[in-house]
Specification:
Number of domains: 3
Helix content: 25-40%
CATH class of the largest domain: Alpha Beta
Structural class: alpha/beta
CATH superfamily of the largest domain: P-loop containing nucleotide triphosphate hydrolases
Oligomer: single chain
Radius of gyration: 23 Å
Length: about 550
């Protein structure tokens, strides 16, 4: 089979104005970025239409390092729904350059279920990531200048909680010292970098309702504390207007097309292992405005991405999915059954069935949120009919869940017709009820963390480092204990041990630190060895990316 980039390159694209017009958009209210990409004005969102249309969440079992293909399934489902005569639009996150040039590669789908132009989407796209990086670091520069200018006055700060960001995996920047050199080179302090996907500005962009809400959230960004212990925010710094200016265009959702000319909104890109893992609220609402069915995804497994989608995004916006699709692969099941990733392509029915424990728990998590669930088996070429039938029988007979095979990677929309029909029938027969959140926001911080750790992850106890205890005291003093929780932990296990596959239980989770995200309105709880600035693997994907005869090669 041809590579992703070969398929993308051979697919003739349609002008983005044609894609927008056929979807029912006012083409006078889109801002083209070239011929095939556009930003869409927020005035096109219709709240009444949103209430009438169907939102579908795509999530997954705990992934192996290569992933389980949620994006491919999301795009494929949109293609399949259009194949059977439904009007469907997909809303996804923007890829980050970190994973693209690091371990995972691009995030534009795969095979014949891609969003296009994939090279642009995977690289600089419309500059949203760069805008967030620039805005975040502009705040840092202005903050450092404030500290420098007021270092000998009563206006000085005793503690700074704001770092810098970069859209590159670079472990060497996790911990740095700035202000070295002459006295005029700044104030000496220890700090570091997070990856742009972990910036609170990324979360703010993805949760903002409009430009006014964006500015209000920016004003509330907590930067540090004054000498008398009071919080110091962007509003206190006096630069919220300048930062809003840098992000005003980035706030607009990006419109592209799929390999079969289905409209797709690609906007925002927080990771689910270190942030809240969902594309922007505005892109989701745009997809719901123009599609009878809107498909979106949440990062990694249901325990991370789906939980945050429900407890943070849906809680803040009132969005209610009609159904959740749980993506599963034979490869990931076998890894959870004890097989190494090097051996996961080989038949092993015993390991496959042992891996059902992970599937069962992820499905139970979705049921806990009162979701109707369809299991989508994302088929690879090495999957046997026997393996597929074993998973089907387990899902239908043991779990009582609807099941469908997805072959969109190889067959495009035609390969997702079974999944599309199963989803439509499930929504018609037994749509999801009102969401049951994992915790009540009015519980204490520790009570909310405990609810997640025990009921979602399966932990027996939770412990706290000294700095985390200090942050909880600060949270209570600031009156923000009602904020929802955003767990930052490994995506490869329910526990904080990335090698604890399957469905471990009875373990301890340790809270190392808590980030107070007063702008986005959440508390980021960091567990285990999770780093908000990833490193590069021994063989980065960048080694395979090149420009050959004017064409980009190696993107996937």
């Amino acid at each position: 089979m041809k590579s992703d980039i070969e398929i993308a390159r051979e697919t003739p694209l349609k002008p983005i104005t044609e894609i927008a017009g056929k979807a029912g958009m006012d083409t006078q209210k889109i801002q083209p970025y070239g011929h095939y990409i556009a930003k869409v004005d927020l005035s096109q969102i219709d709240e009444e239409k949103i209430k009438k249309h169907h939102l579908i969440l795509v999530t997954a079992i705990t992934p192996n390092k290569a992933g389980v293909g949620k994006t491919t399934v999301s795009i494929g489902l949109a293609l399949g729904l259009n194949k059977i005569g439904k009007k469907a639009i997909v809303a996804l996150r923007e890829p980050s350059l970190g994973p693209c040039f690091g371990m995972k590669g691009g995030a534009a789908g795969g095979g014949y279920a891609q969003v296009l132009p994939m090279e642009n989407i995977n690289l600089h796209f419309t500059g949203d990531f760069h805008a967030i990086t620039s805005a975040h670091n502009m705040i840092t520069a202005l903050l450092d200048n404030y500290v420098y200018q007021n270092r000998y006055t009563e206006k000085g700060l005793r503690e700074i909680r704001w770092k810098r960001v970069l859209d590159v995996n670079d472990r060497g920047l996790r911990n740095i010292i700035t202000g070295m050199g002459a006295a005029t080179d700044g104030v000496l302090r220890q700090t570091g970098f997070d990856i742009t996907a972990a910036s609170e500005l990324m979360a703010i962009l993805c949760l903002s309702r409009d430009l006014e809400d964006l500015r209000h959230r920016i004003e509330n960004l907590l930067l540090g504390y004054t000498n008398d212990g009071k919080p110091f925010t962007v509003k206190d710094l006096g630069v919220a207007g300048a930062i809003t200016v840098l992000l005003k265009d980035a706030l607009l959702p990006n419109l592209v097309q799929t390999t079969e000319y289905t409209p797709a909104f690609i906007h925002g890109g927080p990771f689910a292992n270190i942030a809240h893992g969902c594309n922007s609220v505005l892109a989701t609402k745009m997809a719901l405005t123009f599609g009878d069915y809107a498909i979106t995804e949440a990062g990694f497994g249901a325990d991370l991405g789906a939980e945050k989608f429900f407890d943070i995004k849906c809680r803040q916006t009132g969005l209610q999915p009609k159904l959740s699709v749980l993506v599963v692969t034979a490869r990931s099941l076998k890894v959870h059954g004890g097989i190494s990733e090097k051996e996961m392509t080989k038949p092993d029915m015993a390991a496959l069935k042992k891996g059902f424990a992970n599937l069962d728990r992820q499905a139970a998590i979705l049921k806990r949120f009162n979701q109707s669930v369809v299991v989508a088996f994302n088929k690879y070429a090495d999957d046997s009919a026997e393996e597929i039938e074993a998973v089907r029988a387990h899902c239908t007979n043991e779990l009582g869940l609807d099941f469908a095979v997805n072959e969109a990677f190889v067959k495009g929309g035609e390969g997702a017709v079974e999944l599309a029909r199963t989803v439509v029938e499930a929504i018609e027969k037994h749509p999801s009820g009102p969401l049951n959140f994992a915790y009540d926001n009015n519980l204490s911080v520790k009570e909310k963390i405990s609810e997640l750790c025990r009921n979602i992850y399966g932990a027996a106890e939770v412990s706290y480092a000294g700095v985390a205890e200090k942050q909880i005291k600060q949270i209570n003093e600031l009156g923000i204990a009602h904020f929802p929780i955003c767990i930052a932990k490994t995506q490869y296990s329910f526990s904080s041990d990335p090698k604890a596959f399957g469905a471990p239980s009875g373990f301890e989770l340790k809270v190392r630190d808590i980030q107070l995200n007063c702008g986005s309105g959440m508390l980021v709880v960091i567990m285990g060895e999770m780093m908000r600035m990833p490193g590069l693997p021994a063989e980065p994907q960048a080694l395979h990316i090149d420009l050959v005869n004017g064409q980009i090669e190696g993107l996937s």
